[in-house]
Amino acid sequence: MALWPLTSNRDRQVRPVQIRKNPVEEWVPTTCGYCSTGCGIEVGVRKELGPHGPGRKAVTVRAMTDHPVNRGKLCLKGIWEFEAISAPNRAGYPLLRKTSDESFQVVKWDEALTWVAGEFKRVQAAYGRDALAVLSTGQIYTEEFYALGKLVRGGLGTNQYDGNTTLCMASAASGYKRAFGTDGPPGCYDDFEHTECLLAFGSNLVECHPVIYFRLKDALERRKYPVIVIDPRATNFAQQADLHLPIRPGTDVVLLNALAHVILAEGLHDRDYIDRCTVGFEEFSRLVAGVTPE
């Protein structure tokens, strides 16, 4: 099996990524967890004797051909996701050093946990409960977030708890909730096949969400429409767009308000829809009234 990587330079010679064939005893359906696209995958597993006895090992991945999201396609991260499970450099036992100038030593779990708990108590006794902070990943399940929150606030007694999510999707979800009443955008991937124009703000689909980019390319091959990318950077996606607006960083909201100003000033908005489905339109109109394109 070979996968051809995307390239914007058609004259450059490219070589396919060769995916080795591994014997598979069972295909397990699941969802790729690398990003929020939601691609359907099947993980190929086989029985294998591991360090803790007989078990199953993930040896390859393939896309679900009938999945409504990726339709048989995967990006490189999805194709090689199974290797993360048994990566040779993945932590498998505790390593401890008590000062930064020492070398790490392999220790037993009980020793490592006892030392960490003792250091937590020492720091909090000397500087207060909130001297201890916890930073979580965004790649765990809701139930795990809940349990970690209980441990941090109820067990450790600190309010210094943050995570990757607040630097990433939490701000977007908050905006969605305030604007649309739900924590997700109202559109869907099928909209690529029905829109008359695609406007992308700060989005580099080619590199960040390749499968969604595949969906867009499929739609454009069937029916051509303009693609506008607004991004300070000349990304791969921006270079392929019909129009690229390299705005100054931090001025995206100004541009959006100016677009809204023009739409309202020229009467291009759907007043019936606004009256039926929105609130706060008059306040919004006053907000953008003075934000002209100039």
Secondary-structure blueprint of this entry?
Blueprint: E1 2-3, E2 17-18, E3 26-31, E4 40-50, E5 53-63, H1 76-79, E6 95-96, E7 105-106, H2 109-127, E8 134-136, H3 142-156, E9 161-163, H4 169-180, E10 198-201, H5 205-208, H6 210-222, E11 227-230, H7 236-240, E12 243-245, H8 252-265, H9 271-277, H10 281-288
Parallel strand pairs: 8-9, 10-11, 11-12
Antiparallel strand pairs: 1-2, 3-4, 4-5, 6-7
What does this structure look like?
The chain is of the alpha/beta class and 294 residues long. The protein folds into 4 domains: 2-84, ADC-like domains (N-terminal domain of TfIIb); 92-122, no CATH class; 128-180, no CATH class; 181-288, 3-Layer(aba) Sandwich (Dimethylsulfoxide Reductase, domain 2), CATH 3.40.228.10. The chain is built from 10 helices and 12 strands. It has helices at residues 76-79, 109-127, 142-156, 169-180, 205-208, 210-222, 236-240, 252-265, 271-277, 281-288, and strands at 2-3, 17-18, 26-31, 40-50, 53-63, 95-96, 105-106, 134-136, 161-163, 198-201, 227-230, 243-245. It has a 3-stranded antiparallel beta sheet with strand order 3-4-5, with no helix packed on it. It has a 3-stranded parallel beta sheet with strand order 10-11-12. Strands 1-2 form a two-stranded antiparallel ribbon. The longest helix is centred in the middle third of the chain and has 19 residues, at 109-127. The relative contact order is 0.07.
